């Protein structure tokens, strides 16, 4: 759809921003607090699957969101709500409200183009929120730095601040308290999206149930950062990284989506150094020795499963204007 089809002025000012999806190289989860949120200690890696959001000034003060006509989405967007529930929409409304901007002169239409699988545990909606936040901040000339926007982003979702900053980082608290990690580039991964999504809260709840019933050991109230993953990132050693990675949400994700274990076995069979669920899943990540191995692994997985496998690398930069 073009800006004219939407009734927007084709000469309206616009800003386009790109923001990355992520994987969690480590995700350690404690018991839920009174607000239902779980304390985590995670190691994020921003990867080369990116979302693109264009913010176009609206003269009528409304905030609207829709799929992009100028950049193509590479994933199925059927389950994306194109209304005020959309995380890009929520980001624009949050910025306008928090800064006390006059709604009449701060309307915006957000065009979203997606590369990150929806509900895949890769923070695609969070990347849309991060991109929308920066795009609106530039469009509305708020003068915020990226660090300030990352702080403003926390109420939008635990993963949103990380997509603003990108790179690699430790996330504490709900995952929004970030400390950048100096990673030697690049880590080569193969991502295998599933044909259906998993709900993040349901995966967290399933972890709680499995722990309550004694199928899994309880996590500490304050989970500790996986130092071995940090050392492997600094040393740029893929085998050390593969060995050190962990994810407390893997077992609940596999319980909810048992087909994942077959694909995990198949990836190892095809030479991956390690396979793991990405975040709350069901996307799987496989660690490869180098770029050539990642390309080989991706085509072998595609051939055997008929499912698209995506060679990616990280760390990559956070949200930036194109
Ligand atoms: C699990 C992780 C790992 O990075 O992401 P995904 O793999 O889903 O992308 C994150 O913790 C999710 O981040 P995000 O998707 O931004 O979560 P939010 O919108 O803040 O929360 C969605 C829901 O997940 C649960 N949640 C989230 C974060 C957290 N530390 N504890 C939780 O219990 C809560 O039930 C919350 O209502
Ligand atoms: N811009 C958006 N892109 C994708 N999903 C969105 C968006 N805004 C809201 N959602 C809703 O959030 C859910 C999870 O989104 P997503 O960020 O893709 O997954 P995850 O939290 O697993 O990384 C989707 O199922 C969808 O209903």
Automatic annotation (TrEMBL):
Record organism: Micrococcus aloeverae
Tell me the gene name: ispE
Where are the active-site residues found? 22, 159
Q: Which reaction does it catalyse?
A: 4-CDP-2-C-methyl-D-erythritol + ATP = 4-CDP-2-C-methyl-D-erythritol 2-phosphate + ADP + H(+)
Task: From the UniProt record, give the pathway where this protein acts.
Answer: Isoprenoid biosynthesis; isopentenyl diphosphate biosynthesis via DXP pathway; isopentenyl diphosphate from 1-deoxy-D-xylulose 5-phosphate: step 3/6
Q: Name one Pfam family in it.
A: GHMP_kinases_C
GO MF annotation: an example: 4-(cytidine 5'-diphospho)-2-C-methyl-D-erythritol kinase activity
Give all residue intervals belonging to the GHMP kinase C-terminal domain: 231-303
State the protein's name: 4-diphosphocytidyl-2-C-methyl-D-erythritol kinase
Q: Answer whether the UniProt record assigns the keyword Signal to this protein.
A: no
Write out the entry's keywords from A to Z. ATP-binding, Isoprene biosynthesis, Kinase, Nucleotide-binding, Transferase
- Purpose: Catalyzes the phosphorylation of the position 2 hydroxy group of 4-diphosphocytidyl-2C-methyl-D-erythritol.
Q: Where does ATP bind?
A: 117-127
Which Enzyme Commission number(s) are listed?
2.7.1.148
Every GHMP kinase N-terminal domain range: 86-167
Q: Which family does it belong to?
A: Belongs to the GHMP kinase family. IspE subfamily.
């Amino acid at each position: 759809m073009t800006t004219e089809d939407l009734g927007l002025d084709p000469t309206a000012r616009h800003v386009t921003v790109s923001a990355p999806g992520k994987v969690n190289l480590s995700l350690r989860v404690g018991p839920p607090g009174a607000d239902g949120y779980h304390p985590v200690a995670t190691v994020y890696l921003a990867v080369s699957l990116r979302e693109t959001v264009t913010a176009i000034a609206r003269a009528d003060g409304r905030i609207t969101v829709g799929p992009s006509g100028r950049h193509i989405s590479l994933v199925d967007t059927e389950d994306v709500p194109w209304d005020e529930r959309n995380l890009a929409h929520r980001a624009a409304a949050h910025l306008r409200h928090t800064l006390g901007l006059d709604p009449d002169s701060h309307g915006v239409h957000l065009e979203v183009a997606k590369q990150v699988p929806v509900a895949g545990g890769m923070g695609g909606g969070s990347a849309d929120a991060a991109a929308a936040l920066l795009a609106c901040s530039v469009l509305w000339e708020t003068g915020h730095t990226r660090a300030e926007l990352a702080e403003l982003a926390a109420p939008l979702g635990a993963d949103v601040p990380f997509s603003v900053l990108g790179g690699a980082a430790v996330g504490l608290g709900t995952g929004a308290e970030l400390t950048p990690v100096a990673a030697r580039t690049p880590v080569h991964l193969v991502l295998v999206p599933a044909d259906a999504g998993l709900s993040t809260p349901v995966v967290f709840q399933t972890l709680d149930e499995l722990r309550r019933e004694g199928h899994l050991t309880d996590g500490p109230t304050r989970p500790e950062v996986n130092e071995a993953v940090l050392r492997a990132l600094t040393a740029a050693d893929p085998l050390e990284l593969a060995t050190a990675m962990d994810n407390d949400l893997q077992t609940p994700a596999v319980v909810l989506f048992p087909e994942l274990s077959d694909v995990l076995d198949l990836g190892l069979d095809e030479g991956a150094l390690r396979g793991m669920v990405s975040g709350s899943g069901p996307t799987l990540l496989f660690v490869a020795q180098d770029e050539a191995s990642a390309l080989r692994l991706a085509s072998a997985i595609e051939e055997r499963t008929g499912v698209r496998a995506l060679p990616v690398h990280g760390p990559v930069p956070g949200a930036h204007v194109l």
